[in-house]
Amino acid sequence: MTRKILAALLALGPITILADHLGAGDLTLFSLAALALIPLAWLIGEATEHASHHTGPGVGGFLNATFGNAPELIIALLAINDGLFDVVRGSLTGSVVGNLLLVLGFSLAFGGKGRLDRPSSLVSLALVAFATLLFLIPSVAGFDGDPEGTDLWNLSWSVALVLLLVYVAVTVLALKRHRQMHVSDDPAAMRAWSMRKSLVALGAATVVTALVAEVLVGSLEVFADKVGLSAFFVSAVIVAIVGNAAEHGGAIVVAAKGNIRLASEIALASSAQVAVFLIPAVTLLSWFIDPLNLSFRPIEIATLGASVVVTALVIWGGRSSRTRGIILIAAYVVAAAGFFIAGDR
Question: Where do the structural domains in the chain lie, given as residue ranges?
Answer without folding.
Answer: 2-342
